[in-house]
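Hey team,

Filing this mostly as a record. A colleague (T.K.) asked me to run one chain through the structure pipeline before their review meeting, and I want the input and output archived in the tracker in case anyone asks later how it was produced. No errors, nothing strange. Just documentation.

Input sequence:
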Amino acid sequence: MIVRLLLAGLLLAAPLWAQEFEQVNTTSPQTLENKTLTSPSLAAPSISGTVTGTPTIPGATLPNPTITGTVAGSPTITSPTINSPVIATPTISGATATVPKQFSADLVTPENYSSSLATTVSTIGATPKHVAVLQNYTVSANLTFPSTMAVSMSGSGGITCSTAGVTITFNGPFASDLRQVFTLSGGCKVVFGAGSVPALYPHWWGVKGDDSNADGVIIQDILSNLTAGTNIFFPCGTYRTSAAITIAAITNQNLTGSGSCTILKNVTSNDGIFSVTAGANNLQIANMKLLGTGTLSTLGRGLIYVNPSGSATPTTGANFHDLWLAAPSTSGISGNCLTDSKIQNNFFYNDGSAYGEHGLYLSNAGCVTTRVKVTGNYLYNTASGNSAGVTLRQWQDSDITGNTVIGWKYGILP
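Output structure:
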């Protein structure tokens, strides 16, 4: 190993260097061959050139170093303390960086503030910080992370809350890998401020997507606590529910998946996946497969069921697109009082079996369906039954173009 050290004001103990030097106190380059540096103290060193081989520097203290050049090979640096370094254009091979600085804010952990999330938040205040949560913390009182505070969950980082009525709010950026980081019970809930994150992942609350876990209950809890302008993203997986999941009447909700590999499946016969409350405006459901089970019994239901009660409150601005709707016991999409909405580029196909009822069924209960575009859909049925690909009841100013309808008793039924 050859290490070229440009040492400014460097003073090393004589016994360490007895084999090579009595004393080193120079600004000239030095060559150190095959030496072991045990707990050296290097004051403001300048290290340049190339460090190769397998150097070992245990317990080193490097205050204010400037390090340039290339560090390769398999160096081992045990428990160093590096104060205020300047690292210029390094090449680092085989390194693992833990909790890097993110979100353009100084990185801290709760351990810097007495290992309490509440103390961390109150001490930092409005100062921009990135708080890296590396272990699990229990929260028993309302806690709000401000918009100036980014939070990331790494390692075993997470939050447990079982205190009734407690709300944990994130108003700033948030990041975590795809695992459970919120363990909630007793009415405790987590909410995110509008625009605080690009998308929420149901896995953060414990959803599995393994076609076994009772994911529907958790998904319902997530949707019940959403704020306006929230995006929920479902990665590939099969998310099982035993009851239709209610979407509340708040605006600008987006539920999207990764395509046909994202499957939301209701294992209860003659029931849908999403029940959309009247007034849930600007709702987008896209890029996933919705799968029902069983056989038809009660008429009028859909995998997406808009305004089931027939309220006079319209649902406006809905956009249902790029969905695979496999409905053996319901319609694909049904509902009432839908206005200024789009149903486009969907695949109404029950995996080669007969459809339960209609492909698309929109009624005039509550109000007349108005200014709805139904375009680019493929509707296929293997049995005619008493159903239609598209059923219209008193539509106004609406557009039905470019759809393919095959196998139904009626193609388009007014």
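Quick notes for T.K.: Residues 1-24, 86-102 have pLDDT under 50 and may be disordered. The longest strand covers residues 284-291.
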